[in-house]
Amino acid sequence: MSARRDAMFWLLVVIAATSAANAVWMLAGPAHWYSDLPAGVPDTGPYNEHFVRDIGVAFASTALALGWAAFVPRWRVPLVVVDTVFLAGHAVLHVFDTLRGFLDGDHWLLDLPGVYLPALLLAPIAVRLLRRSRSHAPV
Fold it and tell me: In angstroms, how far is CA 112 from the centroid of its own chain?
């Protein structure tokens, strides 16, 4: 089945592209990413080049999964669901750290575009895809 250029296609492409850009930045210039990303990354702890690059690989995986899901709809259910687990888990950790005071309250807004929004957009899509796949699954 070919990918239709519908709203889900474009949402997956946009999140994949932003994840890819983030991954490239993290992998190619981890110190620059750490200090210059407007999300207050230094607030989370001291710089660790290896750790930034590890997370860059996670975002590269996100980009690959969502790009694949955009262009090959039959793979959307597993790719979007697994990717949503990562992005939602990442968001939950940020919520936890902000609620416990490890991160200042300004991180609610700082983290909104890059952490919370992708998870909030993908979670209902993952649920919808799972429900639709269950209703079409053989018993």
Answer: 12
Q: What pLDDT, in 10s, does the model give residues 95-124?
A: 999 999 999 999 999 999 999 999 999 999
Half-sphere exposure of 79 (CA within 13 A, CB side): 18
Query: Distance of CA 7 to CAs 13, 35, 121, 125, Å?
Result: 10, 34, 12, 11
Say how far apart CA 38 and CA 124 lie, in whole Å. Answer: 27
Quick count: other Cβ atoms within 10 Å of Cβ 123? Answer: 17
Report d(CA 59, CA 26) in Å as an integer. 9
- What is this structure's pTM? 0.88
Longest C-alpha distance within the chain, in Å?
A: 53
Element (H, E) at 43: none
Whole-angstrom Cα distance, residue 125 to residue 80?
Answer: 8
Kindly give the interhelix angle for 7-28 and 117-136, rounded to the nearest 10 degrees. Answer: 130
99: Cβ contacts below 8 Å, ≥ 6 apart? none
